[in-house]
């Protein structure tokens, strides 16, 4: 050992792998805290007590250059890379750790150097004492890891800063271990902790029991949580080992539905490697499930995905998806199932679900009257899960939004169809088909330009985020699509006039909105301007009318910032046409600020204009 190596051995802190292993052994029930373990507090070279490790004195460009210098060429041993990082000012900062992962991912590794690089990676992950060194080792194992590395990756992934690269490396080696690590750190809801504990212990009987008993509400199960649970539990194996366990089968169906949720990230369904065998198990055994409203809703949701959702995009054997879809259609048409919505009673959620099944229960099984390149389907999801109403557009049978975008649901029919945005006019028009669930400014949107070209309609000049859905792979340029103009116009007209998916409060909202488009003076006379009008998210049986108010807004010269008001119109059981007419008459006769409630703007502006600011819980 050289003198430098002797000094390093005396001064370096314990390996971070050993540190994580110690914390795990000390943890109650052998499960880490939510978000994982923190790294130990230890001084870094060049970091004074007054400066935080995250505050690197290096710029982005300088950091990139220093990391390239440290990694090229790869050193022969772990200690050398520790020294290089320290000498070049590479610290335990999010920016530096991210740049290390990116630099290692792009390193040229000829076949003759892979064994040496793998050996270095194992030294770094097993004996590394700093976050930059261990991160470099993890990034190398993403490319070069083998089954030998699974135990060490599974421990390091419990350290908060290493979870993502460790899980990325495990995903390629053992998706179950990757899922267990991810859930251990990221499943933050108390209701899921018993299941996570069972998964960590690996006791199959406990996993089966906890999985069947675990909650499946949308607030608890994002698409990613649902996918990771199925991976960690080895769901196809469980279903195969317990073919008569109907509680397990029903829960498997719910997990599959949650993975395809468009409001979240349905790429999780496409990423799930065992999606096809799980679909097979559920659909082929669906007839064994007890005919309940909850099970009917699960099977109908699966049918919606298989008909026009992300399930269409899976790599199905020829004809198999259609066969499974037909099987669900036959089952749900059986009187034992078909009669359920007519006999539903009790809680409001059950009544909502029954109404949804009555309206849309046969829609996924309808074949297009005139098959063509373009198909437009308005799909209302399960109202109990507060799923959105989407305008699903299929090109050559494939749903556009999950295939091309997948960061949020397709826009509503009120936006795309009622406003005529999909019509091909004499001038090209750019149309936003979907927006990220956060905002376009955050994660982008999907746009296309629609134009008429003689006897054809063209969709071209697609705009979307630069990476593919569910990955960091560059997104290729999308081609132009051409449609026969007559067939195109007929399909858009059909979709615009088909409101069979709608329910009374939603129909009332559409009619009120149409009335205000025709007579904007109904609001402008009160210095108000139309806002968002639809059914309420939390109470779908209530119509919500929002409008903006500021003095002078009716004349187009508002004085100061606007306040937003909300007027809730509960469904009174009369026909939507009558409810909409009554609402429009009231707007004509009474100032809506006297019965609407302030819901936006600022407290100061509300008080200035003489309105009460809402007190929120």
Whole-Å distance between the termini?
65 Å
Oligomer kind: single chain
Overall pLDDT: 91
Number of helices: 30
- How much beta, percentage-wise? 5-15%
**Unreliable parts:** 46-53
The class by helix and strand makeup works out as alpha+beta
Lay out the secondary structure.
Elements: H1 3-11, H2 16-26, H3 60-71, H4 78-87, H5 94-105, H6 114-127, H7 131-144, H8 150-156, H9 163-173, H10 175-186, H11 193-201, H12 204-213, H13 223-232, H14 235-241, H15 246-259, H16 267-271, H17 275-284, H18 293-308, H19 320-333, H20 335-338, H21 340-343, H22 348-360, E1 374-380, E2 389-395, E3 398-399, H23 400-404, H24 413-416, E4 429-435, H25 440-443, E5 445-453, E6 456-463, E7 481-484, H26 485-497, H27 504-518, H28 521-524, E8 528-535, E9 542-549, E10 563-570, H29 576-589, E11 597-600, H30 603-608
Antiparallel strand pairs: 1-2, 2-3, 4-5, 5-6, 6-7, 8-9, 9-10, 10-11
Helix pairs in contact: 3-5, 5-7, 6-7, 7-9, 8-9, 9-10, 10-11, 10-13, 11-12, 12-15, 13-15, 15-17, 15-18, 17-19, 18-19, 18-22, 27-29
């Amino acid at each position: 050992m050289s003198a430098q190596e002797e000094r390093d051995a005396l001064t370096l802190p314990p390996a971070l792998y050993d540190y994580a292993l110690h914390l795990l052994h000390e943890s109650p029930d052998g499960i880490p805290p939510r978000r994982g373990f923190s790294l130990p507090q230890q001084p870094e070279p060049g970091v004074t007590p007054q400066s935080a490790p995250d505050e690197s004195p290096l710029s982005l460009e300088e950091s990139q250059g220093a990391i390239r210098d440290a990694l090229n060429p790869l050193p022969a041993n772990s200690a050398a890379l520790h020294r290089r990082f320290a000498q070049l000012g590479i610290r335990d900062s999010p920016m530096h750790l991210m740049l290390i992962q990116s630099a290692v991912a792009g390193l040229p590794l000829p076949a003759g150097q892979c064994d040496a690089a793998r050996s270095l990676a194992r030294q770094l992950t097993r004996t590394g004492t700093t976050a930059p060194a261990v991160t470099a080792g993890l990034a190398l194992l993403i490319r070069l890891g083998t089954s030998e590395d699974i135990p060490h990756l599974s421990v390091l992934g419990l350290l908060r800063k290493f979870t993502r690269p460790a899980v990325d490396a495990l995903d390629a080696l053992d998706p179950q271990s990757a899922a267990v690590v991810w859930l251990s750190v990221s499943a933050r809801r108390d209701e899921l902790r018993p299941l996570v504990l069972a998964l960590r212990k690996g006791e199959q009987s406990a996993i089966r029991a906890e999985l069947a008993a675990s909650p499946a509400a949308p607030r608890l199960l994002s698409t990613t949580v649902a996918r990771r649970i199925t991976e960690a539990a080895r769901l196809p194996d469980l279903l195969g080992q317990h073919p008569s366990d109907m509680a397990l089968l029903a829960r498997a169906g719910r997990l599959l539905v949650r993975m395809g949720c468009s409001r979240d990230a349905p790429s999780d369904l496409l990423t799930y490697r065992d999606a096809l065998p799980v679909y097979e198990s559920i659909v082929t055994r669906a007839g064994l499930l007890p005919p309940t409203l909850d099970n009917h809703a699960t099977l109908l949701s699966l049918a919606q995905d298989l008909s026009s959702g992300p399930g269409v995009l899976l790599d199905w054997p020829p004809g198999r998806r259609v066969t499974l879809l037909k099987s669900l259609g036959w089952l749900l048409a059986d009187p034992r199932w078909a009669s359920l919505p007519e006999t539903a009673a009790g809680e409001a959620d059950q009544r909502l679900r029954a109404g949804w099944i009555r309206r849309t229960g046969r829609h996924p099984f309808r074949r297009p009257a005139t098959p063509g390149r373009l198909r437009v389907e308005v799909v209302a999801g399960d109202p109990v899960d507060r799923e959105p109403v989407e305008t699903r557009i299929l090109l050559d049978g494939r749903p556009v939004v999950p295939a091309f975008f997948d960061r949020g649901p397709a826009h509503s029919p009120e936006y795309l169809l009622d406003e005529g945005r999909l019509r091909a006019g004499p001038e090209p028009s750019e149309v936003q088909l979907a927006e990220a669930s956060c905002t376009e400014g955050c994660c982008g949107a999907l746009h296309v330009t629609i134009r008429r070209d003689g006897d054809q309609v063209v969709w071209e000049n697609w705009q979307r985020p630069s990476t593919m859905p569910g990955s960091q792979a560059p997104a290729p340029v999308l081609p132009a699509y051409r449609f026969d103009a007559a067939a195109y116009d007929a399909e858009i007209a059909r979709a615009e006039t088909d409101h069979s998916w709608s329910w009374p409060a939603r129909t009332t909202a559409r009619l009120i909105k149409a009335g205000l488009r025709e007579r904007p003076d109904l609001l402008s006379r009160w210095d108000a301007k139309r806002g968002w009008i639809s059914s309420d998210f939390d109470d779908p049986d209530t119509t919500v009318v929002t409008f903006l108010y500021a003095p002078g807004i009716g004349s187009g010269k508002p004085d100061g910032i606007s306040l937003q008001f909300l007027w809730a119109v509960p469904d009174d059981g009369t026909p939507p046409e009558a409810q909409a007419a009554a609402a429009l008459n009231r707007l004509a006769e009474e100032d809506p600020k006297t019965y609407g409630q302030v819901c936006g703007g600022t407290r100061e502006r509300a008080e200035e204009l003489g309105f009460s600011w809402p007190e929120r819980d």
